[in-house]
Amino acid sequence: MQAKLIDTMKETLSQLAHYNIWANKRIIDILLEIDEELVDKELLSSFPSIRSTVYHTWAAEFIWLQRLQLTENPVWIAPDFKGTFAEACEDWQKTSGVLASFVDTQYDDKALQHVLQYYDRQKKSNKKPVYVVLMHIFNHSTYHRGQLVTMLRQLGVNKIPSTDFIGFEKK
């Protein structure tokens, strides 16, 4: 069966948002199988541990979601999170789901072309179209999932499912 041609920005971004949920879940399922002590083991990557990489990726998705929802004072949640690693992974999945709902509930492509003004973590004002922000979010998460795969391999985990977009498209 031939895949349906995607002809709108909204459809493309929705597909990427749902891919993000799928790929995050595949990585999270593996992460939740490893010993808790390995989650904090120091490894070579952008962040020193699996936990810090997961928390960063989740926090980034969450702060962007807050900005898209026009939250007046968005918060970077990672430093203040006191729950378990499993709870953080669950919240990461919820955040990814809300991002997908955000895309799916946009009326049309014009809504995604709206220019979002936001302040970065250094309090600098920025303006970007919503579609650019969404593409950044999904690309950023893909980047860090790749790092998580490398970190898992450093720990000797060999059975890691593919998170390639083409695999999502096959499902």
Quickly give the CATH architecture: Up-down Bundle
Helix content: 55-70%
**CATH class call:** Mainly Alpha
The description of the largest β-sheet is: 2 strands, antiparallel
Total strands:
2
Number of domains: 1
Quick one: CATH superfamily?
Answer: dinb family like domain
The CATH topology label is Four Helix Bundle (Hemerythrin (Met), subunit A)
Structural class: mainly alpha
Apparent shape: globular
Instruction: Please write the string of helix (H) and strand (E) elements.
Output: HHHHHEEHH
Number of helices: 7
Average pLDDT taken over every residue: 94
Q: What does this entry show, briefly?
A:
This protein is mainly alpha-helical and 171 residues long. The protein has one domain: Four Helix Bundle (Hemerythrin (Met), subunit A) (Up-down Bundle). The protein is built from seven helices and two strands; from the N terminus they run H-H-H-H-H-E-E-H-H.
SSE inventory with pairings:
Layout: H1 9-31, H2 36-39, H3 50-68, H4 85-104, H5 109-113, E1 115-119, E2 125-129, H6 130-154, H7 165-170
Antiparallel strand pairs: 1-2
Helix pairs in contact: 1-4, 1-6, 3-4, 3-6
Report on the architecture of this protein.
- The chain has 171 residues and is mainly alpha-helical.
- The protein has seven helices and two strands; from the N terminus they run H-H-H-H-H-E-E-H-H.
- The chain has helices at 9-31, 36-39, 50-68, 85-104, 109-113, 130-154, 165-170, and strands spanning 115-119, 125-129.
- It is globular, with a radius of gyration of 17 Å.
